[in-house]
Amino acid sequence: MDLTTRELLDLGLDAVAADAPAASSALRQRVLGASTTGSRPLLHSGWAALDGPISPLGAFIKTASEFATMLDSFGLDDWSRPTSVEGASVRELVAHLVGVERYVLGQLGRRPKLLAPTREDHFPVTREAAADMAHLPGPDVAAAWWSEVSELIATCGPLDPQYDVGYHHLAGSLRGLLVVRTFEVWTHDDDIRRAVKLPPNELDDARLALMSSDLMNVLNLGMALSGTTQPGRTARVDLTGPGGASYLVALAPGEVAGLPDITITTSALDLCRLASNRLSSSLLDIEVVGDRALLEPVLVGATAFAAD
Known about the structure:
Layout: H1 5-18, H2 23-32, H3 45-49, H4 56-72, H5 90-107, H6 122-129, H7 138-156, E1 164-167, E2 170-173, H8 174-195, H9 205-217, H10 219-226, E3 234-240, E4 246-250, E5 262-267, H11 268-275, E6 287-290, H12 295-302
Parallel strand pairs: 3-5
Antiparallel strand pairs: 1-2, 3-4, 5-6
Helix pairs in contact: 1-2, 1-7, 2-7, 4-7, 4-8, 5-6, 5-7, 5-8, 9-11, 10-12
């Protein structure tokens, strides 16, 4: 599948217009056939105005498209393979994502809103939201996910990127939420790839730059959520490889970065995997100069936004 942002947005808009379970099968066939439906003037201008080579909406759409392409290649045996996520099978992990999309749609007013104010609520609330997936075969679960994710894309497209929306314990903008969701879909894509013995999805420069720069922008908030802030201290983080860049980060919210007390060098890809709780800090290929006592508080803070 090779869909542009506009094409998949249009498919999502069609899902909203249909707004019926019967639309799922037809929607899936249209998505898998990469059909187009013509342009629609419903994409908020704020998405195009954002800096960078890809917007958070575009990153989410591209990552979802890649995930769906992988699912469409599966045989019958692949759906029952175990993953490393709470012992869930491939089919169960895709059902979890159905629940995630429904939870987010509830936050945006397109579904009943589900109360899930903490990170620990993530799996219980998504399990509740996707309870109807329990006995469906894998391809039908994937079709249901496409229907939900297409509606989510269509819902997000006309909204201002700065629209206020919460995601469990995180309060912020729609822009930030879609970066978190890109992280999550990519992470479960790799969970499933490992289960079915496919090579990992290493993403591209644009998405890695978006994800890692957003992570650096909120790193001290993550440290605050984790209880690891270091007032008056600054880290320089040099990210290498695709998506790489250098950042000066104050290690407590509300402070201004000064001269670095520690310099951390690692790849943008590995940092994103660490932030997704899929790479332990002990296995991170990293170089450290300066006060090593600051390293663990920084790395712990980087994982504060992962829900599973």
